[in-house]
Amino acid sequence: MTRWCGWFYRPMVVVAIVLLVFLTNPATSQPQTNLLIQACSQANVTNTRDFYSNLNQTFGTIRSQLSNNTYFVTSELTRNSQPVYVMAQCRNYMSTRDCLGCFDFAASSIRACAAANGARAVLDGCFLRYESNSFYTDGTAPGNQGLCGNRTSSRQSVFETAVDGLLSNLSIATPKINGLYAAATTPVAGTNTSTAYAIAQCAETLPSDGCRNCLQVAYNNIRSCATDVIDGRAVDSGCFMRYSGTPFFSSNQTIDIAPFLRDGSSRNKGAIIGGVVGGVGGLIILLIVVLLWYRRSKRTAPGSLYGATELQGPKDYSYNDLKKATKDFREENKLGEGGFGDVYKGVVKDGNIIAVKRLTIGSNKDNFESEVRVISNVHHRNLIRLLGCCSKGPELLLVLEYMANGSLENYLYGDKRGSLNWKQRYDIIFGTARGLAYLHEQYHVTIIHRDIKPSNILLDNDFQPKIADFGLARLLPEDQTHISTKFAGTLGYAAPEYAMNRQLSEKVDTYSFGIVVLEIVSGKRCNDVPNESAGDQILLEHAWNLYETRMHLKLVDETLDPTKYKEEDIKKVIEIALMCTQSPVSARPTMSEVVMLLSDRSRVQNPPSRQNVNLADIRIDMNNSISTTKSMSNADATMTELTGR
Ligand SMILES: *[C@@H]1O[C@H](CO)[C@@H](O)[C@H](O)[C@H]1NC(C)=O
Ligand SMILES: *[C@@H]1O[C@H](CO)[C@@H](O)[C@H](O)[C@H]1NC(C)=O
Ligand SMILES: *[C@@H]1O[C@H](CO)[C@@H](O)[C@H](O)[C@H]1NC(C)=O
Ligand SMILES: *[C@@H]1O[C@H](CO)[C@@H](O)[C@H](O)[C@H]1NC(C)=O
Ligand SMILES: *[C@@H]1O[C@H](CO)[C@@H](O)[C@H](O)[C@H]1NC(C)=O
Ligand SMILES: *[C@@H]1O[C@H](CO)[C@@H](O)[C@H](O)[C@H]1NC(C)=O
Ligand SMILES: *[C@@H]1O[C@H](CO)[C@@H](O)[C@H](O)[C@H]1NC(C)=O
């Protein structure tokens, strides 16, 4: 069996060295260079000259920005074969001089990773990380936990309670504070000298809810220390928390968090005391941690304990394991069939549920290596993760994240029809836009999806969207001529210039996105057969007619509760959707412009114009679509087969 998945950014070959060094004196102004975590990816870059030139230059940029009074900097260079994305952050209580000192220390410890394609150093005063792809919106990664310091000689329940309240308050307030950082103290009742000090901080590229999630996990982790340890930290990809009984920032640097605690639910204090009980608790935790780490690293199983998990790439799965997981690709395990291959649900040995996509790629595997490598490094919360792959004979099996809630298709037209409220629909629209913007503009290669439609938008447990099947169109064999691009879309969703002339650009996805948004708003299929004798119109035409006569609210799905949405919000979303469906291509916004329009409270500046829509072409396109879909059993059939027309 060929195992050409092996060159991936390897799983669990991550060297993680964890050092816990504690301050011997409670100094408050020092570079605070206790190295908490240092990790290098085991995979090396392929072109060290390109890599070092990017790394050196980004480090230089970051250093000069840190010296100009900033605490958080990202910098990337993607100009050559070795893209480098770097993030650095100092705790905001640090002086500029100390921040630079900490950064220099972090940089030198990261240099020890030589030409590894990813590395990080986390210190008390700052952190520094680089990767070969963007990780700026990574929040919490599985496997992170509290790093607990020395135990106090006696259990101090007063200290514990005070710290717990303080940390809980910080985890609630920090995401609401500009800069996503807070420092606070609390007097420890019953003692006359003691004060507890704590900070919480998120990467500033995280949205507020990402920061909240991250700190929630950090809070739960750090609480395991609080029973009898006087000094604790929680480290995660997107956030950091620390408390101590000894001051590590001066008391005039605290932030008044009380105003950020007033609204929102208050924590249930009854549930707080938990974790480890007993005098040797802290020691036991450390022992367990070391033991687990040791066992994990010996097993080369996925999942590292020290937060280096997102350095993982896809892993090699054995064909037999996948066969067993999917019960020999049994029909009842089939989740769906798409243009590229069937998808099966599987349960792997460790109990995790996966989705397995079975592609037939024939014998020409070399072409696919680079394509699969491209997909495998995509990390974004609105894009389905590739967990691994396996190839056997002419088959390529892609192992993907499993989404319990299935696809948007089911929620718009299937048995879950009508169960999404407006807020959920809006979140789906927003998340889908962000995922596409990432594929088009933020990832180091532009990936055009080509087949955005509801069945390719999957929903996680919180109904956040994750786009599936991106990059797979690139796996299709090219036309012999190379003049036109092979069509990999679905009529009705495909932009006219792509469906008719095979003209491919990012704006092809913008168009499909606009159509999907109209479907989400209306609950109607874009390619429903219009009954022309009854005056029916295709969805896009219908939307334009209503929009022009200011009757846009008539487009809204009747299953939506009118008290749960604001008229102007719906109008704006429809307006954006129509902008996306304009032709020529230049009239359509880019996906990052769409994200901006959606997140901006102001109104759309350049309303869409019907002059920019070629409904005649779309009707021809639609008629093709209708005759095709009618003749196929699967209404979702993609048009890959029809390229010869
Ligand atoms: C990466 O490079 C380092 C030092 O240059 C070397 O020790 C290590 O074996 C390399 N790792 C791989 C996977 O090639
Ligand atoms: C990058 O910086 C390192 C350490 O400062 C230095 O050894 C190396 O020569 C530099 N490489 C390039 C290409 O500038
Ligand atoms: C320093 O930051 C300020 C604003 O924060 C900016 O106007 C200025 O150009 C920066 N200077 C340098 C040298 O980057
Ligand atoms: C923590 O314990 C170590 C070893 O027992 C000791 O050397 C160190 O001074 C202690 N740190 C503090 C802050 O008490
Ligand atoms: C946490 O916030 C609550 C509500 O504002 C406040 O009553 C409480 O004293 C705070 N606890 C600590 C330890 O700061
Ligand atoms: C703290 O209180 C103890 C007795 O409760 C007292 O002996 C000690 O002097 C006090 N320390 C300070 C700094 O007030
Ligand atoms: C905070 O206090 C320190 C001395 O403890 C002082 O040097 C510093 O200027 C103060 N900072 C602010 C912002 O007041």
Automatic annotation (TrEMBL):
PANTHER family in UniProt: CYSTEINE-RICH RECEPTOR-LIKE PROTEIN KINASE 3 (PTHR47973)
One example GO MF annotation: ATP binding
Annotated organism of origin: Mikania micrantha (bitter vine)
Sites where the protein binds ATP: K357
Any matching Pfam family: Pkinase
Signal peptide: 1-29
Segments forming domain Protein kinase: 329-604
Residue ranges constituting the Gnk2-homologous domain according to the UniProt record: 33-135, 141-248
Membrane-spanning ranges: 271-294
The protein's name in its UniProt record: Cysteine-rich receptor-like protein kinase 2
Source superkingdom: Eukaryota
Keywords: ATP-binding, Glycoprotein, Kinase, Membrane, Nucleotide-binding, Receptor, Repeat, Serine/threonine-protein kinase, Signal, Transferase, Transmembrane, Transmembrane helix
PROSITE patterns: GNK2 (PS51473), PROTEIN_KINASE_ATP (PS00107), PROTEIN_KINASE_DOM (PS50011), PROTEIN_KINASE_ST (PS00108)
